[in-house]
Amino acid sequence: MQQNKKTTSDTDVYQEVTNKLIQLLEKGTVPWKQLFKASEYGFAQNYYTKHQYSGINWFLLNFVTNYEVPYYLTWKQVQKLGGKVIKGSQAERIYYVNFYCTDDEGKTLSAAEVQTAEENGTPLKKHPYLRRYTVFNISCTEGIEWEKPPLETQEIRPIERCETLLDSMEDLPKIQFIDKETAYYAPLKDVINMPKLQQFAEHGAEAYYRVLFHELIHWTGHSTRLARKGIMLMQNKGKMIYSEEELTSELGACMLASLTEIQEENLLQNSAAYLQSWLDCMKEDKRFIFRVAPQAENAVKYILGS
């Protein structure tokens, strides 16, 4: 088997990923609800280079796949480490942006020609395109000596982890408890409103923090922070902008819930209407998830201070 490294059109890649998510949603599976062990093993990374995946790959390898340890290798990297891929193992596709250059007449330049042009100060036009690669989870390999990272032995309550996360934030949000019935983020006042913790007695404290995380992701979209369209244009946003912001907050909240070990199996609505809303957006715009996943990643990184 060879290393898969294909050049493909942007349209093919966007449609490919979107189709995969649509298939999961049509089966009733919410991929971003999957609980990976980020608090134990960190985010998905390349085991050989120790590079942490980002963008759409961050979303696909942390949420859509469901391996215990989020370490991945290319076919060649498995061979370099003296191992082999177990027969019948599932390969996971990842995507990277690359560029090619053209001159003023539209001629595509080779790497050598690009280098010469840059050295001579000749103006070039850069054109982005997507490349598709395949990787294997390390559990799909054999012959490679590796150990799982040691798990934390001390028992820390999920609520304590949540408070630790909030306390570690340099830019603390303003949280008020005025409206006792509804949780929301008010961008004009830059305030998060939450019902009090005691009001979540029926569903547990985990539900409180899960809801707070959702609003906290909205909070990162303020003009003084990440300036997302879904918050900046809240007064006159259309369906697509609204859906982007809501899914961004849902993905980000799921990530924070996983980091703080909240077992939120019953906290995400799985109604037919809920699933259909995301299906409609993805079928309408194949680039939808490509915009949303990086926004959720950036929001989480902002909260974590990374």
From TrEMBL:
Keyword Cell membrane: no
InterPro entries named in the record: Antirestriction_ArdC, ArdC_N, MPTase-PolyVal
Keyword annotations from UniProtKB, A to Z: Plasmid
Residue intervals of the N-terminal domain: 12-136
Domain Polyvalent protein metallopeptidase: 179-293
Record has Oxidoreductase as a keyword: no
Pfam families listed in its UniProt record: ArdcN (PF08401), MPTase-PolyVal (PF18818)
MF term (GO), any: single-stranded DNA binding
UniProt protein name: Zincin-like metallopeptidase domain-containing protein
Organism: Aureispira anguillae
